[in-house]
């Protein structure tokens, strides 16, 4: 694989941040002789975009930390021509030339390419209407600087009047901004069009995040869309919602998602996919084999849905850039991995993460999906400091194939989700998950990790030992057997339930009717399973267990 | 799978702690009608054996926390006959009867079985000679109580004289005890027969743990075996080592590993395997299909070595117990997973973990093995609080199949090892590892995680882009190019190296001889790779990179 006798190729990369810098530097590592040109329309080719909220909130104190690399460093180390403030306006795929606007001088010029890599990223979605000086999106360092100075100005404002902010959009960035604004002393109101925060998670799991927001005094407006802003003297004073509410604030932040910047690709006649991202093959090539696309502008194959989806996440963009950069100089046999949509966010004291499909996504796709919930500890319960987490594992009800997982709680949420993501990569099943030999010592896990416990439960269902019903199940007409101890019922009791503590179930069977459909409940589902095993082997014909017990039941019925 | 019409079976379980209680309770969950009898020769059938050091050291304050479940609770909840202080003395496999000694009365009796599950665990290895009252092993609660009261008595001793302890054996339990003794104010001396602590890890990775022990003032005696104890008035005063040294102490703790309790199985004519553990099939059945064995007494198939090995770890014992318990009543189609030897230990401020094979193990087995080292952060470097870790990934040099991984450092070591363990479960390769869509947000990881970086490096080697040589490589005669910046050389410079900072390498090529075998070095290997790419594409014929750079080099040459 020596490249010594290669003909010099010109590689042109459009956009640095969303995978472009990764592509350009990888092309250089693979081909020392290539002529590599990177055009970036802004001033930075690489910055820590996921770190912006933490800089604004002051957790990251030094702005320089956000600059991962400078144009000068990339030019020097990699021998790449880096041009900032240059916007690629059009692609002539016949002549293999791009037209570039110099945003400083207004002049245009042409640059020929042998291979072209498009990494133009995505742009924040904003509501229609005029922009105000106190309405912000958060996509780049310019946005960041504007927002931070507005916050600092408000913080310096005299008087005791509370500083108020509205955040629109309760996705990852929206929630990170809510936390940081709260740290800065703002009263925060959060508006989300969906009926829940964190739409990639199922509603009941997201509820745990909503409760944490509530504990911190954040006001939630869920299931409410934005109509527009009320302006006064060039500043927004209120945001008007579809419900008729108007929320007044000093500052408005829009985190309503992003739209892929496909204009350039579309104008050049490149094919878009069903999700309206640029369609690419397993080497990140567009419909023109000399043109690659990476990052938030493309759609990627979802490893569980088996359909192309847009997954605008940093890790995927970075790794795709690396692949395209290697492939375009002929040095990379690797194929683009399927994306799993693995994501994580910290919201005050709660961590929420997911991988694969949610139950709601599976339902929309018509995919059969069974679920189990486990409440577990970050490590062995007998060792101090264990933090609890609620884990939901989704699997195919017949094959046991893993479909996804969600976890919300304390420490160790990231580890559990990464293990499931790894298993999903390999197309694993819940039987695999039950077997994985994970690292265990008291400060780090349990001999039977929450992942194992969830997998055991799923395997029991596959093997016909138990039938779990979801926490949303309508229990009207069922014989409900609550096997908790009486003192536990103080917190939450189901109306109509018969309470027989698990340890006395065998001796009190006569109090129950074996011919009635029966649902066994407990706190988290574990004792319910034990109770159901007793009943189903002692003549009860139709026995189910409420998975996740009252812990999950409370979440689906709350709010 | 209804069990309503089953003939009642008698299941006899021998030993509770090492997987036996798991087996007995699983048998009950699967078969409500079975007659289940558990014999335990000690008083506890289930306790947190991995928590004992932390209770002794005071991190776990309440002894009751160690008792996961009591005989009474198991009897009540699961309808299991639990007999403690009963030792099974022999098995008559023809009559299907065990003989049981009541250790309280000295009487023996017989118990018939349909299925027998052996979980007798393992016993600590101790040196020959008389036992002294101040020499301890740590295997059960009795050991724990003895040791704790001895420690408390020493702590209460009057005077300023230092309290001294010797720990023999630098495996997981030995190291945990060293930490706890140090917390208790002891001067600790640690003796290990191998030339390193933590023999499951490779020596250079274990060196990071040795350095931490040194920083805490623990005196290490590596590569030194125990000859015996010097006794006075029934107490040990000194331990005599093969080197001729004698170490005096108030207290001696032996953590020299365990020997499987195979006596009962051997006497009954059950087959032992090559590792001298009881041989079992994928359902944990011994050579007699009516006799199962689980836990530290058996050998398990190692998922990477593909040979049977003894892996005396709690998680494996627990999960094997569950399998055997289900299978013996005919309700469990699951198969025993291969073990990966995944393990983790915290030693003061350092966490060390491993999965799969070490390089030394692979060498002993004659397995081809390539390695890469990556120094990485627990999360994005721009977000505060990232802790560093050194990750070593082992893979097959042609196929890229993962063989194992080791990590030593701060937070997040457990997560990385668990991800590799999961990939090993599926027989994954470094190409898989490069692709896994892990959860990323600044407090939790990096867009290119250290796992990805290690996998990228390994893939680059597989693709012929680079040749890594191990940190142990003899560099005599090679042209050594150190691409670090001059200020970095203050800490560690290789004699004979030419220093050309990476960013000036292209312009200073004339200072080097392209015909000489060349090794590129830097701090951790990343810039070395970039430098090697430049050289190998500009006429240098034989270029290698020192993997792990000076970070790893220092570890293999230190000590």
Task: Write a brief caption for the model.
The structure is a homodimer of 559-residue chains. Chain A has 559 residues and is α/β, with parallel strands linked by helices.
How would the blueprint of this fold be written?
The structure is a homodimer of 559-residue chains.
Chain A: E1 10-14, H1 20-30, E2 35-40, H2 52-56, H3 71-78, E3 81-84, E4 86-92, E5 97-102, E6 108-112, E7 115-118, E8 122-124, E9 135-136, H4 141-155, E10 164-168, H5 172-183, E11 187-192, H6 203-215, E12 219-222, E13 226-232, E14 235-241, E15 246-248, E16 251-254, E17 258-260, H7 263-267, E18 291-293, E19 300-301, E20 308-309, H8 314-327, E21 343-347, E22 350-356, H9 359-364, E23 370-377, E24 388-395, E25 402-409, H10 413-425, H11 430-435, H12 450-462, E26 468-469, E27 479-482, E28 498-499, E29 518-521, H13 526-536, E30 543-546, H14 549-557
Parallel strand pairs in A: 1-2, 1-7, 2-3, 7-18, 9-16, 10-11, 10-16, 11-12, 26-30, 27-28, 27-29, 29-30
Antiparallel strand pairs in A: 4-5, 5-6, 8-17, 13-14, 14-15, 19-20, 21-22, 22-25, 23-24, 24-25
Helix pairs in contact in A: 1-8
